[in-house]
Amino acid sequence: MTTQDYIQLENDYGAMNYKPLDVVLTRGKGVWVWDVEGNQYLDCLASYSAVNQGHCHPRIAAAMQEQIERLTLTSRAFRNDQLGLFYKELCELTHSHLVLPMNSGAEAVETCIKAVRKWGYRTKGIPEGKAEIIACENNFHGRTITLISFSTEAQYRNGYAPFTPGFKIIPFGDAQALEQAITPNTVAFLVEPIQGEAGIIVPPAGYLKRVREICAAHDIVMMTDEIQTGLGRTGKLLAEEHEGVEADLTMIGKALAGGFYPISAVLSNKQVLGVFQPGDHGSTFGGNPLACATARMALKVLVEEGMIENAAKMGDYMAQQLRGISSPYVKQVRGKGLLIGVELRQEARGARRFCEALMKQGVLCKETHEHVIRFAPPLIIQRAEIDFAIERFQTVLASL
Ligand SMILES: *Cc1c(COP(=O)(O)O)cnc(C)c1O
């Protein structure tokens, strides 16, 4: 079968809710992937940061393989010998007190919304049905009805009404707006440390620190969505560490099992997740032994193999190299660690055609919004590979 045959199959039988680049991948190893025709590419997206540890990491593969042959799913009707160890290791790593495992990022965010509402009714005495959660303009927290209910992106919402009430939107990066939006019924503030899907938007320095203070002063729950920014992506285990803050609730997902398995988690202090009683919330696959065993090794290699430090170092190098490119199309290079956005000017006529040209040069990138190219390779990337990407990018900028 040819590339075109595979694409035809997807087009004939699949819903058209994506518009991927026309590359059909069949194999991956580390920072590299190969298509069905044998062409090799440097992966500069890392599956939206779900493959921070690199494709098919051998130690994660081995841990998963071992668990697959032993026990995969128990449901939470029974206990399993991986869950408690996963909790303990994750809590020790992130300085959390409690964990709640789910499957997708969206489910972790939904879990937080349930938890803070219940927390507000129980501990703040907010009248039932009145809890308010504050979120930011241009947020991305997932695709469920409740999550798109407070999206400000028209396409995410069009045609999906009616929406879930109880959310208030303020500008991102504006701590004063948060303070002004708080009412006696506010239970929580939900924020991404860096807005990924919005185009790698970095808030002003000191923002999260100020948010931390405001949330504490008004007794509302600070929730950081680190599903994309967490697990080493920005050069720290969690991006909130850049400002030395700890949120009350933190969502992680994506790279939690190194791209081998969907698993997400809510990290919490004692109080907030402490509101859940047996039967209040659940998931058939959440916390299954296969997910836990895989995630345990994915976390272990992230730390043991120095990927977080490498992300900081290589991120600085990559940003510096990108800033060194002189092209009339490049408006701004921004980000932290290996989460880098290159914003193109209007004259560039959209980032998509640059991604398509980069693909032909052996570098896989994806546009985010119309004018931003995201560079977010696996955290194991080395200098020579970054040089490879930069060279190709220069060629593409010069040729279009
Ligand atoms: C990807 C992402 C989500 C949603 O995760 P899914 O696993 O796709 O449901 C939520 N928040 C952020 C910041 C993300 O990047």
Model description:
- A 7-stranded mixed β-sheet has the order 4-10-9-8-7-5-6, sandwiched between helices. A 4-stranded mixed β-sheet has the order 1-2-3-13. Strands 11-12-15-14 form a 4-stranded antiparallel β-sheet.
- The protein is an alpha/beta fold.
- The mean pLDDT is about 100.
- It folds into 2 domains: about 5-55 and about 305-400, Alpha-Beta Complex (Aspartate Aminotransferase, domain 1), CATH 3.90.1150; about 60-305, 3-Layer(aba) Sandwich (Aspartate Aminotransferase, domain 2), CATH 3.40.640.
- The chain is built from 14 helices and 15 strands.
- The longest helix has 19 residues, at about 105-125.
- The structure holds pyridoxal-5'-phosphate.
- Pyridoxal-5'-phosphate binds next to α5.
| Alpha plus pi helix count | 14
SS class: alpha/beta
Specify the biggest β-sheet: 7 strands, mixed
- Determine Rg (CA atoms, Å): 21 Å
The CATH topology of the largest domain: Aspartate Aminotransferase, domain 2
Distance between the terminal alpha carbons, to the nearest Å?
A: 31 Å
Shape: globular
Compressed to H and E, one letter per element, the order equals: HEEEHHHEHEHHEHEHEEEHHHEEHEEEH
CATH class of the largest domain: Alpha Beta
Total beta-strand segments = 15
- Tell me roughly what share of residues is in helical segments: 25-40%
* Strand ordering within the main sheet: 4-10-9-8-7-5-6
